[in-house]
């Protein structure tokens, strides 16, 4: 579904992704784990088109998406649940969800929107209860559910999640990961970026270990859990801390 | 029957992507963790981020057996020793042994890949598998053992040697699959006959043979005499051990586990890739090894890639049986000669046994080669004329195959030394 080859990207003079090759097949939950600053968020932003790739290929559903604007990439079926939720605090829960469905309007699939909203309310009953409440008044966990729900409203073929566990209490983290697992069981394809390596590998099929802009390991999730390098990456060990500045 | 159908029948494009990803992460790991590679790449001014394709791979240096020896014992390990759960050493067929290590994941991968080979060769969980490879530092015994256990077969860890006992156990334990070197399989066949056991009374069905080059003729002989389906498998300890490649029941080349090993075939003299399908030296880059990754390891084994798809449905490419080793190659009277060529000539000749020895001497400035061949009893009881006819025939065939003339001596059956492990076919008495 998603195939990346020799991808390079960064911010101004800072090259964050040195060279990344990876893929996500249909129906898989793939996780990218790595320490802070390894380039995980940059990678998701580059796939989403928020940061332009400097070199390399990103092919989504056999289409080169490097030159496309972010909204076109969402329209193709590749949605991002951003780091820190980024819900619209002054809008209600329902309004947030409807905004997530804007591509459905562009696809002239308006009829599916209320059906999708029902599905999301089934997945996250708490969002239904709080439908008229302003998103800013939700708890962190509820906001995360809303952010996932909002992305699902676009009927993505691939849903990318950036640190969904960040800043959440352990019990809530468990809920969120159960939901991701459930999405996977229902056939969704998920690319999950996480610092919480143990939790992410617990629900993923495969994983990549990202270390300072390069992938150092690709294996089945259960094998990565046994790998010592993973434990090191999880602990935030940085073997190559000098960032290349051009 | 497949062991990991998703991998063995993977679409070639998907496979290529996986190989590129794994090559990238392997290079990143060796650069970070193995000073030998980092130093070598830096000296050659190679930025590993610039390796973007399989063609770029050719800019990387080869790794040779000498590099492994120079870093004896642990110098090329990519993980600290505390993460290594197993250590093996090469069998030392040629020169000093080299040391390799495995993490927990490596052992798991290895078992799975051997399980693929065994499954491809017909073995299932219902089989009773007799492993007559040496257990110990040599990777053959343990490699096959773990793979067979992974499948769930009943494993007899027999090890090599004590052939009469092997046969007794084979009979009593109702062994269905035999695993050893092909030359040992023939010795077992001889022993079965000597013990007066009817091979049809045994339960043998499959034989998986490896660790030394053998010929198609030898396969026929083993299949007929042991009444089994015999398949070839390939591996080397420096890369992993058995499980690098194995034949399926089509018995027409060995499927390479390309999702774990990147394959090149080079001309051993020019070091350039050979044209697709030509014979050359196999070069392997490991893609998933954790403890002991190797980059562009020169195996010294000669083979060729068979590009046509296989009837079995596996998409993993096949290589031909190993035709010999670049370092087994004998230069006799200026010609390149491989023992395997001599073996295949002998197999086609009626009246000879599949046991032979090549003795090379130097008389004055000239090489002198004598091939000792065992013949079936019947010929020795016959008149001299038949013997000399046979000698002439062998001489003629050998000189047309090798391009040089050799002496031939017929010896009585069972006079040449037998081997329980790898056979020693060549005695080179030249002081070069």
What secondary-structure arrangement, pairings included, does this model have?
The complex is a heterodimer of chains A (246) and B (432).
Chain A lengths: L1 E10 L2 E11 L4 E5 L6 H9 L6 E6 L2 E2 L5 H7 L1 E4 L11 H8 L1 H5 L4 H13 L1 H5 L10 H13 L5 E5 L7 H16 L3 E6 L2 H7 L2 E6 L2 E7 H6 L1 H7 L12
Parallel strand pairs in A: 3-8, 3-9, 6-7, 7-8
Antiparallel strand pairs in A: 1-2, 1-4, 4-5, 9-10
Chain B lengths: L4 H4 L3 H22 L1 H9 L10 H4 L7 H6 L15 E4 L9 E4 L1 H17 L7 E4 L7 H13 L2 E3 L6 H10 L4 E4 L1 H13 L11 E4 L6 H11 L2 E8 L4 E7 L6 E3 L4 E6 L13 E7 L10 E7 L1 E2 L11 E2 L4 E2 L4 E3 L2 E3 L1 H9 L4 E12 L2 E10 L1 H5 L2 H19 L4 E5 L14 E3 L4
Parallel strand pairs in B: 3-4, 3-5, 5-6, 6-7, 18-21, 19-20
Antiparallel strand pairs in B: 1-2, 7-8, 8-9, 9-14, 10-11, 11-12, 12-15, 13-14, 16-17, 18-19
Describe the structure in your own words.
The complex is a heterodimer of chains A (246) and B (432). The longest helix of chain A is centred in the C-terminal third of the chain and has 16 residues, at 170-185. In chain A, α3 packs parallel to α7 (140-152). Chain A is α/β, with parallel strands linked by helices and 246 residues long. The radius of gyration of chain A is 18 Å and the shape is globular. Chain A has a single domain (2-234), classed as P-loop containing nucleotide triphosphate hydrolases (Rossmann fold), CATH 3.40.50.300. Chain A has helices at 40-48, 70-76, 93-100, 102-106, 111-123, 125-129, 140-152, 170-185, 197-203, 221-226, 228-234; strands spanning 2-11, 14-24, 29-33, 55-60, 63-64, 78-81, 158-162, 189-194, 206-211, 214-220. Chain A starts with a strand and ends in a 12-residue tail after the last helix. Mean pLDDT of chain A is 90; it is low at 235-246. Chain A has a six-stranded mixed sheet, with helices on both faces. A four-stranded antiparallel sheet of chain A has the order 2-1-4-5, covered by helices on one side. Chain B is an alpha/beta fold and 432 residues long. Chain B is built from 13 helices and 21 strands. In chain B, the strands form five sheets. In chain B, strands 4-3-5-6-7-8-9-14-13 form a nine-stranded mixed sheet, with helices on both faces. In chain B, strands 10-11-12-15 form a four-stranded antiparallel sheet. The longest helix of chain B has 22 residues, at 12-33. Chain B is globular and about 70 Å long. Chain B starts with a helix and ends with a strand. The mean pLDDT of chain B is 91.
């Amino acid at each position: 579904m998603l195939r990346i080859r020799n991808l390079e990207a960064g911010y101004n003079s800072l090259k964050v992704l040195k060279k990344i090759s990876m893929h996500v097949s249909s129906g898989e939950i793939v996780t990218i784990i790595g320490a802070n600053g390894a380039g995980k968020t940059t990678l998701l932003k580059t796939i989403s088109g928020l940061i332009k790739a400097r070199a390399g290929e990103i092919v989504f559903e056999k289409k080169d998406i490097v030159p496309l604007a972010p909204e076109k990439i969402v329209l193709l079926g590749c949605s991002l649940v951003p780091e820190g939720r980024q819900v619209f605090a002054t809008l209600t829960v329902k309004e947030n969800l409807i905004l997530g469905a804007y591509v459905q309007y562009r696809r002239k699939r308006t009829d599916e929107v209320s059906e999708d909203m029902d599905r999301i309310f089934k997945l996250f009953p708490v969002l239904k209860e709080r439908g008229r409440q302003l998103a800013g008044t939700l708890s962190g966990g509820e906001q995360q559910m809303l952010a996932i729900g909002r992305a699902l409203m676009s009927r993505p073929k691939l849903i990318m999640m950036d640190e969904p566990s960040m800043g959440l209490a352990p019990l809530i983290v468990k809920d969120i990961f159960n939901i991701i697992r459930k999405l996977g069981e229902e056939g969704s394809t998920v690319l999950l970026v996480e610092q919480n390596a143990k939790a992410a590998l617990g629900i993923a099929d495969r994983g990549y270990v990202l270390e300072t802009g390069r992938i150092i390991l690709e294996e089945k999730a259960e094998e990565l859990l046994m790998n010592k390098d993973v434990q090191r990456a999880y602990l935030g060990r940085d073997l190559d801390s000098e960032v290349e500045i051009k | 029957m497949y062991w990991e159908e998703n991998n063995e029948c993977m679409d070639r494009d998907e496979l290529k992507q996986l190989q590129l990803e794994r090559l990238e992460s392997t290079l990143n790991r060796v650069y970070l963790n193995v000073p030998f590679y980092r130093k070598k790449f830096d000296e050659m001014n190679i930025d590993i981020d610039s390796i973007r394709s399989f063609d770029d791979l050719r800019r990387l240096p080869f790794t040779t057996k000498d590099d492994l020896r120079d870093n004896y014992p642990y110098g090329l390990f990519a993980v600290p020793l505390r993460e290594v759960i197993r250590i093996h050493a090469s069998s030392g067929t040629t020169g000093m042994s080299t040391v390799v290590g495995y993490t927990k994941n490596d052992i798991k991968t290895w078992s799975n890949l051997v399980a693929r080979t065994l499954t491809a060769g017909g073995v299932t969980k219902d089989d009773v598998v007799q492993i007559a490879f040496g257990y110990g530092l040599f990777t053959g015994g343990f490699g096959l053992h773990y793979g067979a256990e992974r499948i769930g077969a009943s494993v007899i860890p027999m090890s090599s040697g004590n052939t009469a006992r092997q046969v007794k156990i084979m009979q009593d334990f109702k062994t269905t699959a035999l695993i050893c070197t092909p030359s040992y399989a023939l010795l077992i066949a001889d022993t079965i006959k000597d013990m007066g056991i009817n091979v049809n009374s045994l339960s043998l069905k499959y034989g998986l043979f490896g660790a030394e080059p053998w010929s198609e003729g030898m396969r026929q002989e083993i299949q007929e005499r042991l009444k089994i389906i015999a398949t070839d498998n390939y591996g080397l300890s420096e890369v992993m051990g058995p499980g690098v490649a194995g034949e399926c029941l089509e018995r027409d080349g060995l499927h390479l586990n390309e999702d774990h090993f990147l394959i090149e075939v080079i001309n051993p003299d020019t070091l350039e890739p050979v044209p697709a399908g030509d014979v050359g030296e196999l070069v392997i880059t490991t893609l998933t090894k954790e403890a002991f990754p190797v980059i562009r390891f020169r195996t010294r084994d000669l083979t060729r890639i068979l590009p046509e798809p296989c009837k079995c449905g596996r998409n993993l490419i096949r290589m031909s049986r190993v035709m010999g080793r670049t370092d087994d190659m004998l230069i006799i009277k200026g010609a390149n000669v491989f023992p395997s060529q001599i073996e295949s000539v002998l197999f086609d000749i009626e009246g000879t046994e599949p046991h032979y020895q090549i003795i090379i001497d130097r008389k004055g400035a000239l090489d002198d080669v004598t091939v000792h061949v065992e013949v079936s009893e019947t010929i020795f009881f016959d008149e001299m004329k038949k013997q000399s006819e046979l000698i002439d025939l062998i001489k003629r065939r050998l000189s047309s195959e090798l391009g040089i003339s050799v002496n031939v001596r017929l010896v009585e059956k069972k006079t040449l030394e037998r081997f329980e492990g790898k056979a020693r076919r060549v005695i080179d008495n030249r002081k070069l």
